[in-house]
Amino acid sequence: MWLPLMGLVIGVIIGLLTDIRIPPEYSNYLSIAILAALDTLFGGIRAQLQNIYDEKVFVSGFFFNILLAASLAFLGVHLGVDLYLAAVFAFGVRLFQNIAVIRRILLTKWTSNGEK
Amino acid sequence: MVGAQKNFYFSVTASIIGFMVAIQFQTVSEPVNRDTRDTWELRNDLMGEKELQSELLQEIRMVEDTLTKYESEREMSKGELLKETLEELKIEAGMSDVSGPGIILTLQSAMNELGREVPMSYVSPSLLQRLINELNMYGALHISIDGQRVINTTVIRDIGTVTKIDGHSLNNLPFKIKVITKDSEEAEKLLKRIEISDIVEDFFVDNLQVMINKPEEDIEIPGYQDTIRIRYMEPVE
């Protein structure tokens, strides 16, 4: 449980320490990639809580979603349509759903634990 | 074991996400200090920048001025050089007036035994040419005959019965032959050599007397008046 949080903190620290800056015109892609990654992460947590977690699905979903979101944004830029909004919408909705499911599962677990 | 692997994947994923978030954060939060200047401050800043700009413009103008000065100087010097060369060539070709030490020969009719001048006989072109050759041999730099400059392309010939030098008739005696040498020493030498030369006797055969004057310090010889026509010369490719 604590290891993923540690990983997150380590990632943030590394990112801040390396002082990498991407050009502002690419920050759109990065933001949508972050969204996709978060979506996958929460999806993975939910799957684990529901005991349907699959490692391959998780890892492939992680990278595939990031690539898909970035390419969608790229396509949108070149077509003149804000296609990344579609990705943002999709991922945002999924993110909320996932978090809601996680919350419910945790709630039921907590209440069942409390009843015991 | 399985849980550890799961945790590992989650950790890696989470660290990647953290990394991306950090980068995004750094990228987005680029302007750390917000611009809180009001209109007046902005105005002042703008004025400062404008001053800087005008200073820079002035500098640029100065540098450009210097550049054009240099350029024009270079052009000028080129022109000067060309002019100098032209002058040198003109002197060499005999286009310009020259002055310097030399001697003056006067050609006049010879007296006969009775002390009278014999009637004017004409000056033979071949004799004149020989005289010029001898003068050149003895170190003459510039020669004029009766005020007519002798240059490389000068023609001396008789047309009809009149000897002409570059179209100028030599029909009234006496006339002067001016010779300029390098220096007065050379002039002295030239004088001696002319005095002992046969040419004077040759002139006497034609009833002409060559009066050889003392070397002078400053003799003026006019430049060649006509244009020099070059027919059989081309610049080398």
Characterization of the model:
- The complex is a heterodimer of chains A (116) and B (237).
- Chain A is mostly helical.
- Chain A has one domain.
- In chain A, 84% of the residues lie in helices and 0% in strands.
- Chain A contains 4 helices and no strands.
- Chain A has helices at 2-18, 27-49, 55-79, 84-115.
- The radius of gyration of chain A is 17 Å and the shape is globular.
- The relative contact order of chain A is 0.12.
- The model of chain A has no long low-confidence stretch (mean pLDDT 85).
- By secondary structure, chain B is an alpha+beta fold.
- Among the domains of chain B are: 55-93; 98-221, 2-Layer Sandwich (Alpha-Beta Plaits).
- In chain B, 49% of the residues lie in helices and 21% in strands.
- Chain B has helices at 2-28, 39-93, 125-137, 184-196, 199-205; strands spanning 98-109, 140-145, 148-150, 156-159, 162-165, 168-169, 175-181, 208-212, 216-221.
- In chain B, the strands form 2 sheets. In chain B, strands 1, 2, 3, 7, 8 and 9 form a 6-stranded antiparallel beta sheet that branches. A 3-stranded antiparallel beta sheet of chain B has the order 4-5-6, with helices on one face.
- In chain B, a hairpin with a 2-residue loop joins strand 5 and strand 6 (168-169).
- Chain B is rod-shaped.
- At the A-B interface, helix 1, helix 2 and helix 3 of A face helix 1 of B.
